[in-house]
Structure formats: structure tokens, C-alpha cells
Design a protein that fits this description.
169 residues; Arc Repressor Mutant, subunit A; DNA-binding transcription factor activity, RNA polymerase II-specific; Homeodomain-like_sf; Myb_dom; mainly alpha
């Protein structure tokens, strides 16, 4: 597994210091100077900084405190259960509504968690994965056959499935 140091900035988690910097640059009246923001946060794109501020920090929510950023908090089983029960298989769920039952989670976090980790797999989808594992097919061939799921979710499910098969042997 690659260390966090070797990952591109866009791929590694946000640090508390970066979050404080984004908050300081973006949370004031008037337009944000994105050139300055990108210089202060080297390796982070304008899109990444904007997304971090608007989707994660959401200053319109009174509950956000820059000193209590939850960028590294793991999802609890209780949060997963609440998200699953609220979404009930609805890919087009109202993520803002769902996030309200999960304090401290933004709509974008809930959507990502559901689409990448929680969305249930049908028996047919599991059979497709099993067949492709037996045939040694690449992920590239498998992805178009499972349009309901993102590549990260397919990769994770494929890994889980191949691990469970090797344990069964």
C-alpha cells in the first residue's frame, strides 16, 4: 500500500492545517482569489479547494467549526445502517435530507459513502463478478457490465469476493 507521502495531493486526505487554510481563504464576504488559494495549498486544484469548502465545510451550516474538522473520521456501523435505511436502494436519494440524520456528515460524504461502499449488490451482479474472477478478466472488462456501481466499488467488491473464494477453497 502506498504511503500518504507518495500520493498526489488530490488523492491524499485533507489535513487539519489545510482545512484551516481553506476556511480562512474562503470564509469571508466577496469573491475568493483562487490563484492565491492554489499557491497557498500547492498540489490542490481550484476544483478541489472549492469542493472542500462548499461540499465539506458548508459555512451555511452553523455546526461547522474549523477547529473540529472531521476529515479523518471513519464511518461507524450505526452511520452506515442509518444511511442504508434512509436511502433504501434509491440512487437518486436527496443527499441533503439523508445527511441531516447523520450529524457532521455532508451530503457529498453521504452520497460517496452510499455509492462507493454501501449500495447493495444484486445476486446477478455477484455472479458476474464471480465468473470474471474465475476467468481472470481484468477490471476494465468488468466495469461496463456493472453500470450501477462505480469503479472503486467494483474493485472493492471484486477483492472481497476473491478473498472469500480463496478462504472457501
Amino acid at each position: 500500500m502506498a504511503s500518504l507521502r507518495n500520493l498526489k495531493c488530490e488523492d491524499r486526505p485533507w489535513t487539519r492545517e489545510e482545512d484551516r487554510t481553506v476556511w480562512g481563504l474562503c470564509n469571508w464576504p466577496g469573491p475568493t482569489d483562487w490563484d492565491i488559494a492554489m499557491r497557498v495549498l500547492p498540489g490542490r486544484s481550484e476544483e478541489a479547494i472549492t469542493s472542500r469548502f462548499l461540499d465539506y465545510m458548508q459555512p451555511q451550516r452553523q455546526s461547522f467549526k474549523p477547529e473540529k474538522v472531521r476529515s479523518f473520521s471513519k464511518w461507524s456501523k450505526e452511520e452506515d445502517v442509518k444511511a442504508l435505511m434512509t436511502c433504501e436502494g434509491d440512487v437518486d436519494a436527496n443527499w441533503d435530507v439523508v445527511s441531516r440524520i447523520l450529524p457532521g456528515r455532508t451530503p457529498n460524504q453521504v452520497k460517496s459513502r452510499y455509492l462507493n461502499h454501501l449500495r447493495p449488490w444484486t445476486a446477478q451482479e455477484k455472479d458476474i463478478i464471480a465468473l470474471h474472477i474465475k476467468q481472470g478478466s481484468s477490471l476494465k472488462i468488468l466495469v461496463p457490465l456493472l453500470p450501477r456501481h462505480k469503479i472503486t466499488a467494483i474493485s472493492a467488491e471484486r477483492k472481497r469476493h476473491s478473498t472469500s473464494q480463496s478462504c472457501d477453497d
